[in-house]
UniProtKB/TrEMBL annotation:
Domain of life: Eukaryota
One protein family per Pfam: FAD_binding_4
GO cellular component: membrane
Family listed: Belongs to the oxygen-dependent FAD-linked oxidoreductase family.
Domain FAD-binding PCMH-type: 29-211
Pathway: Cofactor biosynthesis; L-ascorbate biosynthesis
Phosphoprotein found in the keyword field: no
Organism of this sequence: Capsicum baccatum (Peruvian pepper)
Name of protein: L-gulonolactone oxidase
Catalytic activity: L-gulono-1,4-lactone + O2 = L-ascorbate + H2O2 + H(+)
Cofactor(s) needed for function: FAD
EC number(s) per entry: 1.1.3.8
GO terms for MF: D-arabinono-1,4-lactone oxidase activity; FAD binding; L-gulonolactone oxidase activity
Keywords: Ascorbate biosynthesis, Oxidoreductase, Signal
Amino acid sequence: MPPPNPLKCNNVNSDCQLSNSYGVWGDRQTCRAPNIVYPTTEEELRRELANANKNNLKVKIVTRFSHTIPKLACPTSNSKNYVFISTEKYDSTVDINMEKLTVTADGGVGLRKLIDTIEKAGLSLVAAPYWEGVTVGGVISTGAHGSSWWGKGGAIHDHVIGISLIVPTNESEGYSKIIKLTPEDPLLNAAKVSLGLLGIISKVTFQLERAFKRSIRFNFTNDSAIEDEYMEHAKKNEFGDIQWYPSRQTAVYRYDNRVPLNTSGDGLNDFLGFQSNPILLSKSVRAIEKGFETTRNVGGKCTMASSFVAYKKLIANGFKNNKLIFTGYPVVGHQGKMQTSGSCLYSSPIDITTTCAWDPRINGLFFYESTAIIPSSKFVDFIRGVKNLRDLVKSESMCGVDLYNGFLFRFITASDAYLGQGENSVVVDFNYYRASDALTPRLNQDIWEEIEQMAFVKYGAKPHWAKNRIVAFLDVQKKYPKFNKFVAAKVQMDPKNMFSSEWSDEILFGKQESLKGDGCALEGLCICSEDRHCSPSKGYFCKPGLVYQEARVCRFSSTSTS
């Protein structure tokens, strides 16, 4: 089954509810708007915005995928004066300029369609996120990225050289207009990573290169020197990354570099986590992990983690030499087939036994995804902090993250975007179990809360705009030197705040104190300051961190009291 449409309307195009790809938002509240429209051309987009402006409606732009975890696309809870404008049917144009090595695409074009069209023309898009279930407009709006410290780097918005933006205007200008931003216009740096808050991204122009291939191999080894080797690894490998499984004391170095187009090989990136999975398997894995959570069975989680890591090593994380199976290193293939993946997006509608593992219709995998962007100079201390914590609590306590992908380290360069990273940085992703019920504590949750606060508070990490629990955005505006320039651009292009909502303001301005209440820390809606923010009735109390002692985490104790 292909993923469900994130939008469900009770009538044809009215009374609509938006969900993310997991089916549940961070605060588990619903996200609604009275109406939705589906423009198919840039002029229709402009007219729909003009109509909304003329009738004093607020607007949220939605796409066919909805893979952003925070509620950036959600209207205010009292959403009677909102309209969704969808780009699902605005995806026809992909224009390539062979002389300038550029491509200009409609905002609703899917990343896979964009890449395939570019590759057929003998060109390549250098940067892309690892997951291809995104649109052109969405992928740049939230700072999505791959991995590279070479050239313009791994963030796809840093390869953007032009954006057409539809913005509201006064009556004399027809209530909306299209503005075209070029590298000479400072507003381009605001629009590159704009969170859907400046206007409607109608077209994006990317700089391309002549087509090339990549050669990839993985080295599964001990993690003893990872803090000393990550910088050199990024400098030596154009698209390199590192996966770290702390409970297994294992680091996986990805040696990934471009090779000439005539190099033999027709490989494919079909990452295991993004493949279609049998429904029964996804449901079983979730049920087993949930059982281990309920019985506090750390050993059971470690057995699963050990099996998963061994299987990933056996199949090279899903890379295939001949588009069918992995037969050995190196895996060589065209850039367009190696840079991103997402085969579960294209499951046959006839085969109803497989889905994406997190499909909300099947009660499969359900997890948090924390992603911190840490300055490269501070990253060594972050790794040491996590290792110190591991030594203190024993490595078995970290098996929960190794059940998924451990810690994934990727590399991105300094960006001119106002809401981009200001210096060369390491992006660390880690996924971990999320309870089915908001008030159910998690096994060893204090460890992941301490690591989360270690990253975002102690080392000042910036949050990935499309991921994370709400606490990651606390005081986020203080982390961007050009934040005020973005706000000024927002005031200039959207003076009536047509594209804002309480949810996007909560994320952009980092204000979460209003969310504090009983159990709020269990779901990352707050950092605990009182026991009631955890679950004292179930033995979870608000305590200092073990290594980062300024952290405040919900820790289980069978004997502790307030």
